[in-house]
Every structure is written in structure tokens, then in C-alpha cells.
Specification:
The chain has a seven-stranded mixed beta sheet. The protein folds into four domains: 87 residues, Gyrase A, domain 2, CATH 3.30.1360.70; 231 residues, HUPs (Rossmann fold), CATH 3.40.50.620; 64 residues, no CATH class; 111 residues, Isoleucyl-tRNA Synthetase, Domain 1 (Orthogonal Bundle), CATH 1.10.730. By secondary structure, the protein is an alpha/beta fold. Helix 6 packs across helix 8, helix 7 packs across helix 9 and helix 17 packs across helix 20. The chain is globular. The chain has 21 helices and 17 strands. The structure holds one RNA strand.
Length: 628
RNA sequence: GGACUCGUGGCUCAGCCUGGAUAGAGCAAGCGGCUUCGAACCGCUAGGUCGAGGGUUCAAAUCCCUUCGAGCCCUCCA
């Protein structure tokens, strides 16, 4: 509970005061004070001004007097600020003990929002015809971070990755291999996913533009892919699985794990679509159009200004959005599960088993990957389609907010970076495009970062062994990339600049990880085993108390992040922790002190910081290095 | 034409949901701090009519309306 304890105490006392005054229904705030105004402040007087017909200043004064009658264990002093705020000063000797003691528990930071219920987080879901680029990384890191936060908030999280192995993009590379005879082996050891994306996909789509008769071949290939037992489908399956293996390698390198891979081809063959199609008709959610531009189509009626959306074409085939409906319903457990599950042969970063869907019950194990609540991480450009799905799901199961589309803005390339790819943009940022070959691959960014960090580490530690440098470079490079992807709001466009992304100073993961490394060195050199059996009242310096306070906010931050699916909240919190620690580090010498008692108290604090930061960084999928 | 998102110092952002006290950071600029618990750090200086206009309110960066600018979506494409 930590800092929450003092907030609760104050809130309860203020409620009692209001009861005595026979006032109810006042939704006042009790929150962390701004710097310079004590530790906690309340706006209660402002809210009472109208009712009591007095100005806030007088009311605060009155409340201040009444508050002195209240029993308080954690509040040392109250202040009626002329502005109208009621401010509180904590009894830090007591509060420090509570906060630091709790921080040593394994459960520190855990909150209970999920009540141990199931939740699905779906992310990644990249067409298996190319390597992951920096735009995909935002999706993956957001999804992975959210799933970590929800786990901390007591949800049982299952992470799904939807493999769209039967779409047009896959058909394109199949056309490349079959029709244009691209070699099935990549040249000089190139990763297979990179080869498919950089060479086969880009060059094949270029040829379409030159020769429109190829469109027929493309369409036929797509149809054969969906047909299942065709030779094309078997070949396609082999190719897409090889690409997928390459993509997963990139994801695992980023510390990302999944619970199940769901193959679109199997969803199509499972017959889920026809079941949901019947259900849609029964419930009157779709209508058959007899005339007009959508004649002979099944459509979902658009509300207000929105056009109707075609679900089944006049030729009887399902559209793109239609494929998402049975999948969404399956995730919510609204349909009988047609799948068997097989283990995917791999060891993931979190060492959990990775399952994959199968329609074949040989050596299959039953699993349940459905949940009452589903979070789907998709680019906000798909918002309109996702809104249709959300509305449909609400009508199916009558539970509001059970299907959540977590949208985020795209990653664009800075004009400088676009230029390095041969694209002149006139100073403007550029949208990435897999088809046009305008993108920066995730693997290449990781590689560049790792090189840079290896250099920096060598500079600082010339004597360090290569294996240790490698470990540090891995930790810091992944941290840097992941942090950049979540530190700002989801609805802000990230303009990726290759040169700037290599910056390791300021509001970056290395800044935060560095604070951890510094603290680790203090603990190492102290020669003392940190304990919470210390005199907390000795921690009196401003920078000490500020660090304690920041540590005590962990639960509140996790709650905020989980309630709002907001990874950036934890990113900011990690940064705040590091700032507080660096200020402490500058102002207080831990090991220099002659006073052993004080030294022990400070060691306790430093260790508490390290434990907390390590846990918070873990929510971001970032590891905390002891040295760097 | 319609829907959605963004607009805060030179640049990148936080704060907005849940209105209140001096609008916070980082980068870039200028100055200062390593005979060390590691300078991937810290301190100081300078820089802001919170796009514009109106409204609600005792109180608006925050809520409402209008408007301008930027982005994105609006295929029987995926």
C-alpha cells in the first residue's frame, strides 16, 4: 500500500469531518503535493466554497482547526495554505519504515485489478512475408509491456500473435518464388525474413506495376492459398513458417514472449466463419442488399454518416474485416473452440511454452486461450474497422468493454533517415512502406545500437571481458529501443531518426540503467548485507526523503498504468526513480559516513531503490545491469 | 464532403480523462562541477500570450463551441 496509506488516512479523516458538518457527496481529491507544498494536498476547500458560501481560504482554516482534533499516525503537520489548499506533511520516520519495508517484499508494486481473471493481449500480428521493421516494434513493445503490467495487476494474461499466412501479402511472395523463380535460399547467409521482404516482396510488387496482366496470377495464387490442400498452400505454409521463425527471433531478442500463435489459414479452414455468419444473420446484424452499389452483398449498416460496410461480396467471398469477426468472437469464447494445440519448438525469454493452433488432433493438448476481456493492439489507422468489431462483440455478449482496441499512432521516418534510404521528402517525414521497401528493419537498429554501446562500454572499461561487454550491450541496446517505443503517449506519432536513436543521454533507458549500476556499486563496495532492521528516522535529507517518496508511489503508478493500458506511465516512473536517485547520489555520500547506523539506513534505501527500479524496469521488459 | 487524432520554449515531449497554488522534463545553447560510493551524471543561466477566438466557472493548458494548421481513415484492397 505504501504511499497510499497516508492518502487513505487523510481521506478518512476528512470524510469524518464532513460527516460532522453533515455534508456528503463531495468528491474531493487527496493527492501527492506539488514540490514545495508539503507531501499531500487536498482541494477540499475549493469544493465546499459554494455550499458554505465562504471563500476557500476561510474554509481551509476551519478544516485545518478541525483536522488537529483527528487522530493521525502518519501526518506530522497540517497547513492551511492561503491559496485554499489544505496541505499535509508526513511523519517520515514512520512512513519511511512502512515504504522501505514493503519494498523488500516480492509482491511490491502488485495491485489487484484483475481479480485473477483471464485477459487476452494480442499484438505483433505481422504478415509473415517480411522482416519486422521499426514500426512493428512499436506494436510489439506496447503489447508486451501492457501484458506485463496487466500481469502485475493480477490478471491471468495470455498473449496471442495472429499469423496472417493466407493474405495478399503472402500471395505476393509466393508469386515471386513460383512465377519469377526467386531462389528459395537467401544469398550469402541473409536472414530468410529479410530476404523475403527486401528482395522477393519488393521486386515482385514492382513487376505488378509494369505488367497489369500479372494481377490474374496474383488473384489465383491467393485463392489457392486459401484452398488448403493445394500445392500452393503447402508451399506457402513452408515459406511463411520460415519467415515467422525469423520474425520470432527478432521478438525474442527484444525480450518479448507469446502464449499462442494463431494461424489465419486454420481459422479459415476451421469453419468458424460459417458459424459466425449464421449467427450474424440470425441476430439481424447483417443484411442482404438487393439493389444499389452494394447489390448482392451482405453488409453491416453504418450508423449516422458512416457508409455500410460490405462483409460478403457479391461473389460470395468474405472481405478483410469479415475474417476478423470469427477470430474476435473466438477470443471472447463465444464460439466452440475448433482448435487443437501443439507446442512450438522454441525456448522463449520468459521460458514459457509457446503453443500454436492446429486442426489436427495428433499429439495435441487441450488449452484454453479465451477470455472475458480482450485487448487487441493495432495501429490506429484501423480504428474504423476495429470499431465495427467492438460494436459487434458488444451485441454478441452484452458485456461492455470486453473487446478493447488499443490503438497507437504510427512510426514515421525523419527526412534525414528517409534520405539514407534514397527517398527525397523535401524536409518532411515519410511513412514507411514494406511494399515499396521504405523502412528501417528492427534487426538493423538493434545491431547498430549494440555496436555503439559496445564501443561506449569498452571506452569506460578497457579491461572488461568481451562476454560481459556483450551482455551489457545486449541489455542496454534492447532497453534503449524498448524505452523509445513507449515513453510517449500512444496517440503521438514517433518520428524515427537513425542518428538520434543512438543517443544514450537524457530521457533514455541508459540514463535509468546507469542509476541502477551506480546503486549496485555502492551496495557492492559497502560490504554490508542490506536489511530493513535499521533506524529510519535518520533519513532526513531532502533528497533521501524524496527518493523514499518516489519508491512509495510504485503501486499507484502500476494501478494507473493498468487501468488505462498506458505503458508510458511506468516508463515515466522509471525515469522519476532514476532522477530521484541521481539527486540523492549527488547530495548524500553513503559510504563516507562515519556513523554506521546512518550508513546502514542509507544502504537500506539504496537497496530499496534498486529492487524497485528492477521491478519497474521488468514491467517494461528492460533488464537492469549491475555494471555498464 | 464525413469520422478520428495531434497542435505546450529552437527541437522532442509530460501535464488534459478526474479544472485550482510558481505550466514540468530532455535535447540543442551558455556557464560551472571528476585526487573517483563510476561524469551514460549533477548544478546554474537563458528561452513559454499552452495554435487562434468565444463560452461555462469564484478558478481553464485542462471542460464546451467555433475556427486554423498538420496527420490519418472513409474500396465488393488487405
Amino acid at each position: 500500500m505504501t504511499f497510499q496509506l497516508i492518502l487513505d488516512e487523510i481521506k478518512n479523516n476528512l470524510k469524518k469531518i464532513l460527516d460532522d458538518l453533515s455534508i456528503s457527496d463531495v468528491n474531493f481529491s487527496v493527492e501527492l503535493a506539488k514540490p514545495g507544498f508539503g507531501d499531500v494536498s487536498s482541494n477540499i476547500a475549493f469544493l465546499l466554497a459554494k455550499e458554505l458560501k465562504k471563500n476557500p481560504k476561510e474554509i481551509t482554516q476551519m478544516l485545518f482547526e478541525k483536522y488537529s482534533q483527528c487522530s493521525s499516525t502518519l501526518v506530522l503537520k497540517t497547513e492551511a495554505h492561503p491559496s485554499g489548499y489544505l496541505n499535509f506533511f508526513a511523519d517520515w520516520a514512520k512512513l519511511s519504515k512502512l515504504i522501505l519495508s514493503e519494498s523488500y517484499l516480492d509482491t511490491f508494486g502488485a495491485v489487484d485489478i484483475g481479480n485473477n481473471s483471464n485477459i487476452i493481449v494480442e499484438h505483433t500480428s505481422v504478415n509473415p512475408n517480411k522482416a519486422l521493421h521499426i514500426g512493428h516494434i512499436r506494436n510489439i513493445v506496447v503489447g508486451d509491456t501492457v501484458s506485463r503490467i496487466l500481469t502485475k495487476a493480477n490478471y491471468k494474461v495470455n498473449v496471442l500473435n495472429y499469423i496472417d499466412d493466407s493474405g495478399l501479402q503472402v500471395a505476393d511472395i509466393i508469386v515471386g518464388f513460383k512465377h519469377f523463380k526467386f531462389d528459395e535460399e537467401p544469398p550469402n547467409g541473409k536472414k530468410f525474413d529479410h530476404y523475403c521482404g527486401d528482395d522477393v516482396y519488393v521486386k515482385t510488387t514492382q513487376k505488378y506495376e509494369l505488367d497489369s496482366s500479372l494481377e490474374e496470377i496474383r488473384k489465383n495464387t491467393l485463392k489457392e492459398l486459401e484452398d488448403g490442400d493445394s500445392e500452393t498452400a503447402v508451399f506457402g505454409d513452408m515459406i511463411t513458417r520460415k519467415v515467422l521463425a525469423g520474425q520470432l527471433e527478432t521478438c525474442w531478442n527484444l525480450n518479448v514472449s507469446y502464449d499462442c500463435l494463431n494461424f489465419e489459414s486454420q481459422i479459415i479452414r476451421s469453419g468458424l466463419w460459417s458459424k459466425i455468419f449464421e449467427k450474424l444473420k440470425e441476430m439481424g446484424l447483417i443484411e442482404f442488399e438487393n439493389e444499389g452499389k452494394n447489390a448482392q452483398c451482405w453488409v453491416i449498416r453504418g450508423d449516422d454518416n458512416e457508409d455500410d460496410k460490405v462483409i460478403v461480396r457479391s461473389n460470395g467471398t468474405a472481405t478483410y474485416i469479415a475474417k476478423d469477426i470469427p477470430y474476435a468472437a473466438w477470443k471472447l469464447g463465444l464460439l466452440d473452440d475448433p482448435f487443437y494445440y501443439q507446442k512450438y519448438d522454441a525456448t522463449q525469454p520468459n521460458s514459457k511454452t509457446l503453443w500454436q493452433t492446429s486442426l489436427n488432433n495428433d499429439s495435441a493438448t487441450p488449452q484454453n486461450f479465451t477470455a472475458q476481456k480482450v485487448v487487441t493492439v493495432i495501429d490506429s489507422r484501423q480504428e474504423r474497422l476495429q470499431k465495427i468489431i467492438t460494436t459487434l462483440m458488444e451485441k454478441f455478449n452484452s458485456i461492455p468493454d470486453s473487446y478493447v482496441h488499443l490503438g497507437y499512432e504510427s512510426v514515421t521516418l525523419s527526412s534525414d533517415t528517409a534520405k539514407t534510404l534514397g527517398l527525397e521528402t523535401d524536409g518532411k517525414q515519410a511513412q514507411m512502406s514494406g511494399r515499396k521497401g521504405v523502412y528501417v528493419s528492427a534487426d538493423s537498429v538493434c545491431e547498430l545500437l549494440k555496436q555503439k554501446i559496445t564501443e561506449e562500454t569498452k571506452k569506460r572499461h578497457p579491461e572488461m571481458e568481451d562476454s560481459e561487454i556483450e551482455k551489457i550491450a545486449q541489455s542496454v541496446s534492447i532497453g534503449t529501443l524498448r524505452y523509445e517505443m513507449i515513453k510517449q503517449d500512444l496517440d503521438k506519432i514517433i518520428t524515427f531518426d537513425l542518428a538520434k536513436s543512438l543517443s544514450l543521454e537524457g530521457d533514455t533507458a541508459p540514463y535509468i540503467q546507469y542509476a541502477y549500476a551506480r546503486a549496485s556499486r555502492i551496495l557492492e563496495k559497502s560490504g554490508i548485507t542490506p536489511t530493513t532492521d535499521v533506524n529510519f528516522s535518520l533519513l532526513q535529507e531532502k533528497s533521501e526523503l524524496n527518493l523514499v517518496k518516489t519508491i512509495g508511489l510504485f503501486n499507484l503508478q502500476v494501478r494507473d498504468a493498468a487501468n488505462n493500458f498506458a505503458p508510458k506511465v511506468i516508463a515515466r516512473y522509471c525515469h522519476d526513480l532514476a532522477v530521484s536517485f541521481n539527486s540523492f547520489y549527488e547530495h548524500v555520500k553513503v559510504l563516507d559516513s562515519d556513523n554506521d547506523e546512518l550508513k546502514s539506513s542509507r544502504i537500506c534505501l539504496v537497496n530499496s531503490f534498486n529492487i524497485t527500479l528492477e521491478k519497474a524496469l521488468d514491467l517494461l521488459g528492460i533488464s537492469a545491469p549491475n555494471r555498464m
